Amino acid sequence: MEEPKKTESGRVLPLNGYHSTAVMIEAISIRSMPSVVLTVIATLYFINWAQAVLLPLVVALLVSCTLDPIVSTSNAFRMPRSRRRALNKTRGIILV
User: Fold this and answer.
1) Residue 31: which residues within 8 A CB-CB, separation 6 or more?
2) Residues forming beta bridges with residue 6, ordered by sequence position
3) Residue 6, Cα to own-chain centre: how many angstroms?
4) What digits encode the pLDDT tens for the residues 22-66?
5) Separation of alpha carbons 60 and 74, rounded Å
């Protein structure tokens, strides 16, 4: 019969090859810490840099989703296109 393998700390690994959570946590060493820190710093820097692009996109998306039901109802009343445009622009300005 095959003898179970052990980790450096003496924990027994399961025979099916899957590691328990404790063994996975044990696998994180001090060598991986600089990588984690650099990844966090890079992510924060990217968010700060992308804020100028992402914020207007999110606001535009929210305004678009807010105006969609209004545009749909004005289409249902079969108003002339020029009147719908003026009405929707006015509503958009009021929302902002």
Assistant:
1) none
2) 12
3) 39
4) 555 555 566 677 888 899 999 999 888 888 888 888 888 888 787
5) 20
Q: 12 forms bridges with which residues in the sheet?
A: 6
The two structure tokens encoding residue 10: 């003496």
Are the beta carbons of 43 and 37 closer than 8 angstroms? no
d(CA 43, CA 74): 43
Question: DSSP per residue over 19-38, as a string?
Answer: PPHHHHHHH--GGGHHHHHH
Of 1, 4, 33, residue with least CA distance to 17: 4
Q: Is the distance from CB of 52 to CB of 73 less than 8 angstroms?
A: no
Q: Mind giving me the DSSP string for 61-83? A: HHHHHHHHHHHHHHHHTT--HHH
Distance CA 91, CA 81 (A): 15
HSE on the CB side for 1, CA within 13 Å? 3
